[in-house]
């Protein structure tokens, strides 16, 4: 069982390591082993914070858990999330595993080659592509030689000593791993396409790989488990705690006032970016949609609010309907900490001290405001004037 298996527990080698390990999950659960505590944390953080990283610190250097507990917590977390009996919880869990994995992959890829061979166990891009059967489907673009014509394609590693900025993905995997709901620029008609391959930037390639991880994690969930028997019975109190936590977190209900001038800076920045016609990355668009739904806007209102931005109506509808599922209170917007990790939050004047997530910050600003005119009212009045 090595640290890489623990970092990427959905990889085939990690599954083999679990199968080869002489441990029984029911016995671990019965003994309330550290892997069980970590599994609870994994699911709790996935549902509330959109990450599965341990609060005790980054694995492996700072984490309170060893490689065995970290690795075995993954299959136990899958059982826990199955027992929550909620499709949105499974979606949210898979998205959080994928978001955490892609952060780790990004860090691994940034690790210096020398360090890579010496100390920390890290992955190379080729390893990730091979894991998802994409080695033959993705090629790095060589840097354009000065004065030469079109860039050419090489293996996934690209030119030695330098990370390529663009890659070419075979059209089949591109369509399977990406979605037009991510924004206009993801539509095939808006892409450079040559010889059955689609050109993507390095960041876009990571977005596609994140989707591959998410699919892998979601595969096979939920498990069919008889309630009140065996491992399900042992995990009953953990599942009850998670359900209680979710209902407490969402008890207050949405603030249900749309006052864009009071939106927190992170959300205003995202709206400004979309207003300028720039595409939002999937985490940016998720954060914005989760916020707008979180303050009580309906999918139709969000579509109207985001008209004339880079966000397309179909993508907005898809995301907001999914987020406003009637059990969708399980989708609180990501926390300030998560948004800071994505570079979405800049914590102006240290206002992260005021609230732990953008929704809480907005609720506080609404509560402090003396007079508010709801955007919905203004919008309706403007519509009436135009109609006259
Ligand atoms: S501290 Fe929180 S609310 Fe403020 S900009 Fe950052 S993420 Fe948004």
Automatic annotation (TrEMBL):
GO terms for molecular function: 4 iron, 4 sulfur cluster binding; DNA-directed RNA polymerase activity; metal ion binding. InterPro entries: DNA_primase_C, DNA_primase_lsu_PriL. Keywords: 4Fe-4S, DNA replication, Iron, Iron-sulfur, Metal-binding, Primosome. Residues 141-160 are annotated as: Disordered. Its cofactor is [4Fe-4S] cluster. It comes from the Archaea. CDD domains: PriL (cd06560). One of its GO terms (cellular component) is primosome complex. The keyword Isomerase does not apply. Residues 258-375 form the DNA primase large subunit C-terminal domain. Transmembrane segments: none annotated. GO terms for biological process: DNA replication, synthesis of primer. Heterodimer of a small subunit (PriS) and a large subunit (PriL). Belongs to the eukaryotic-type primase large subunit family. Regulatory subunit of DNA primase, an RNA polymerase that catalyzes the synthesis of short RNA molecules used as primers for DNA polymerase during DNA replication. Stabilizes and modulates the activity of the small subunit, increasing the rate of DNA synthesis, and conferring RNA synthesis capability. The DNA polymerase activity may enable DNA primase to also catalyze primer extension after primer synthesis. May also play a role in DNA repair. This is DNA primase large subunit PriL. It comes from Halorubrum kocurii JCM 14978. The gene is priL.
